[in-house]
Amino acid sequence: MGGDPDPSSSLEVIEAVLKGGADILEIGIPFSDPIADGKSIQAAAVRALASSTRPVDVLEIASQVRRRHSVPVVLMTYFNPVFASGIGGFLDAAKKAGVDGVIVPDLPLEEAHGFGKAARKRGIDSILLAAPTTGKARMRKIVASASGFLYLVSVLGVTGARSGLSSETVALVKSARRFTAGRIPLAVGFGLSRPEHVEAVIGAGADAAIVGSGIVELVGQAGGDGSRSYGQIEEYVRSLKRATARRS
Questions:
Q1: Which of these is catalytic: 26, 100, 207, 217?
Q2: How many CB atoms lie within 10 A of CB 35?
Q3: d(Cα 26, Cα 75) in Å, to the nearest integer?
Q4: Distance CA 136, CA 190 (A)
Q5: Which residue, of 5, 8, 123, 185, has the greatest Cβ tally within 10 A?
Q6: Is residue 6 flagged as an active site residue?
Q7: Catalytic residue among 37, 100, 125, 207
Q8: What is the pTM of this model?
Q9: Which conformational region is residue 108 in: left (phi greater than 0), alpha (psi within -120 to 50 degrees), or beta?
Q10: In terms of C-beta distances under 8 Å and separation of at least 24 residues, what long-range contacts does 83-87 make, across chains too?
């Protein structure tokens, strides 16, 4: 979460994530009504907003990351901040900051065409989500419209670290792979928090595993003393990365 617990500390968190071996960095823009997120990321957004973090501050964080690293940077934002800035203005600012892709979870496929077209014009990927309830016809449309990668939501509900990974999730990944293979990379998120979760989804055919809540929980547990969590975050991400290698 950009700005959690404050903009300066969140840069240190990012450094720990990248040292741990993350292949892509997702930075969230804090929002007051994060309808797709569970309690961990909601709490992270509250902490970031309490430190007066604005979308422009998150873009500055992205810009600083881009100056230091070559890793792709993806923004996760709800549509309200995009609408408030204007689609063109938001994407221009994102492009200037070096952003590679944007995820807007509350922008449905039927309303995403204009945003996607404007993003592609600027060389930014418009990353779309598919859910466990997504039917075959709709999945084909989402895959055809998405760029960067397809974000497969592994469970019904909101984000949040979960202790187990169901057999239904593994079956879902295998099913989605039939639509994405040879077309677009498949990334799986929501509920993944352990190396064995990562190993399972990669083994089922996913190209990437997305982990957010597990990281922001470590930030929250530090109680404002970010230095206590940086080493833990780095090792946590490294354990997840090792799990991808076991099944690659």
A1: 26
A2: 10
A3: 6
A4: 21
A5: 5
A6: no
A7: 37
A8: 0.92
A9: beta
A10: 85/55, 87/114, 87/115, 87/118
